[in-house]
Amino acid sequence: ASLLGLGRGARAQPAPSVETAPDGFRVLRAAPARLRLRPEPAPPLDMWAFDGAVPGPTIRVRQGEEVRLRFVNDTPRPLTLHAHGVRNASPMDGVGGLSQEPVGPGASFDYRFMPPDAGTFLIRPLNPGSSSEASERGLTAVLVVEERDPPAVDAEHVLVVDDHRFG
């Protein structure tokens, strides 16, 4: 398991920024990346990353705001994106082979939906009956749907805990 930035000597990766296309869609790009999850002398690993980081970016919207997310698949495998726990219309739910056909390598898909509930949700590829390679290689991001009237807080931190098994 790895907690980036919390281990002895490990450095947190800078939070990836989410590119916004001219048409207002936030662009989430999945691509191979060579990343170091543990401090030296541990070697860098061949991962798949959203926007060059594992975990990928935290995407924030306000409750009642439409999520407009352009998924660009630059990995060698067909993938979808699924936001776990978000009540969503089936064509935008991202369950490969069930609610949508997976997005092929070099292709993209525009997700548009309005999450009815506030909360913090994990975004990852979901292709039932297929390999879990995408998630095991690090493809995770976070969707935060903020309350319409958020409570006053001093600080908020999103922590993603994941394990990776290579070899």
Task: Provide a descriptive summary of the structure in words.
By secondary structure, the chain is mostly beta strands. The chain is 2% helix and 30% strand. It is built from one helix and nine strands. The strands form two sheets. Strands 1, 2, 3, 5 and 7 form a five-stranded mixed sheet that branches. Strand 1 and strand 2 form a beta hairpin. The radius of gyration is 16 Å and the shape is globular. The protein starts with 18 loop residues before the first strand and ends in a 21-residue tail after the last strand. The N terminus is likely disordered.
- Please state the average pLDDT score: 85
The shape, in one word, is globular
Please mark out the parts with pLDDT under 50 across 5 or more consecutive residues, or reply none. Answer: 1-12
Q: Please state the structural category.
A: mainly beta
Number of helices: 1
Question: Ends: how far apart?
Answer: 14 Å
Quick tags:
single chain; 167 residues; mainly beta; five-stranded mixed beta sheet; four-stranded mixed beta sheet; 1 helix; 9 strands; disordered N terminus
What is this structure's SSE topology?
Layout: E1 19-20, E2 26-35, E3 45-50, E4 58-62, E5 67-73, E6 82-83, E7 108-113, E8 119-124, H1 133-136, E9 141-146
Parallel strand pairs: 2-5, 4-9
Antiparallel strand pairs: 1-2, 2-3, 5-7, 6-8, 8-9
Question: How would you sum up this structure in a few lines?
Answer:
With 167 residues, the chain is mostly beta strands.
